[in-house]
C-alpha cells in the first residue's frame, strides 16, 4: 500500500496546504451551526495526485488540527494519518471518482435540511436565492446505509439529474454538498441549511409561491456569470 513518502515534493506540499484548509473549514461548520458533537465532515481532493484529505472519524472538533487530517486515495485507502478516516470516506471517494470536476465534499446533519430529508421532500424553489445557488429545488436522494460507498452512489445519481444543484438531501440521513473546492462545498452546506429553514418557515405561513423554470434559469445564469468578482 502506498504511503505519502512514495509521492513527490509537489504532492506532499499540496497535502500540507490542503490539510490546513480542511482543518480550518471544520470551524465553519460550527460557526454556521451545521453540526453537533462529532457529526459531519469536510474533504478536499488534491490536484496533483488522486488523493483526498478528510476529517478523522469521531474526533471532537476542538481537537482537529492539520496533522490530524487523514490522507486517503480515491478508493478510501489510508495513505497518511494516525487516525482512522471518517466513516463517510468511501462515499466521498466515490463522489470524486465519478464527478471529476468536484474537489470538495461536505456532509452535515444540519437541523432543517435534515428535517426535509427525514420527510423525503425536496426543498421547493420558492426563493430567488435558491435559483441563484441551486438552480432549482434542493433534491432528495435515496435511502442508503452508512459505511460503504452506497451513499456516494446515491449522491452522484441524484445530482446527475439536478446538474446545477451543489446539494442533495439523502433520505433519512442528511445533506451532502459539493464544490470546486472544500470551501465552496462548505458554503453550499451553509446555504442549504439557510434555505431549508426559510422554506420550512414559509410552509407554516401558507402555500409557497413557486418560481417559474424560465426565471430560475435567468437567476442562475446571472449569479453564475455576472454576480461577484471576475
UniProtKB/TrEMBL annotation:
Domain Class II aldolase/adducin N-terminal residues, every copy: 20-200
GO BP field: pentose catabolic process
Keyword Transcription: no
InterPro entries per the UniProt record, alphabetical: Aldolase_class_II_sugar_metab, Aldolase_II/adducin_N, Aldolase_II/adducin_N_sf
Cofactor list: Zn(2+)
Keyword vocabulary terms for this entry: Metal-binding, Zinc
Isomerase found in the keyword field: no
Record-level Gene Ontology MF annotations: aldehyde-lyase activity; L-ribulose-phosphate 4-epimerase activity; metal ion binding
Major enzyme class: isomerase
GO CC terms in record: cytosol
Domain of life: Bacteria
A Pfam family: Aldolase_II
Known EC number: 5.1.3.4
Region forming the signal peptide: none
Catalysed reaction equations from the record: L-ribulose 5-phosphate = D-xylulose 5-phosphate
Record-linked PANTHER family: FUCULOSE PHOSPHATE ALDOLASE, L-RIBULOSE-5-PHOSPHATE 4-EPIMERASE SGBE
Protein family: Belongs to the aldolase class II family. AraD/FucA subfamily.
Name under which the protein is recorded: L-ribulose-5-phosphate 4-epimerase
Species the sequence originates in: Bifidobacterium catulorum
